[in-house]
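Recall the central idea of this unit: under ordinary conditions, the amino acid sequence of a chain determines the structure it adopts. In this exercise we apply that idea directly, starting from the sequence alone.
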Amino acid sequence: MSKVFVITPVKNAVDSTLECAKAIAESNYSLIHTIFNDFSTEETKSKLEVESMTLGYRLVNLEDITDTPSPNYKLVLQMAQKEALSLGIPLLVIESDVMIKQNTISEMAAFLAENPKSGLIGAITVDEKDVVNFPYLKFKSVTKLIIKTERSLSFCCTLFSPGFLKSFDFMELDDTKDWYDTFISKKSVELGFENFVLMNIRVLHRPHGSRPWKQLKYTNPIKYYFLKFWKGMDKI
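Accordingly, the structure predicted from this sequence is:
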């Protein structure tokens, strides 16, 4: 069976992270899972180290690699791309506030096999009531099961094809940004690949579980945008 290289960037929120890791471990598809711990607390780090033996993931503590404060998403993507390319398999980002189903990865891999021109393939995110939620509210009213789109995908649960990984070197990512979903989505289309959001592959998303200050976007947008623009946080 083919494999997928799964990564989960983590910043605290250890309970939801371990729920996420358990769901990945119970997947019906062959995979390699690495958790990138981005300067979490010592308590979180300790729990992740203990549970790695049970849940079968490899733990990479970024504090052992860089002195750059969190978020280190660029570094995570660069390391993940290098490893996925060396293994010759797709890269799948599953963020720590996402819960997949047993067949999520196998269905995404099957879609890639049937659509080899794919660059990015995203599973739609939903809440506990199975209603499409952030960050895919822009697709909430779409009735098609498969959306081919040039709009930005989020990396909540997104598969990167080997073809795209070979075509764009993540070492070229902009150092001034924190997140790269929008840029990489556009780069995929620019390089001639097709991006898809799969409405029939649904994953539970609890937004911003690892970075609760971002909840201000909904509860106190004035404060959120003050932090975003004046403090230079959450640069996209």
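The mean pLDDT is 91.
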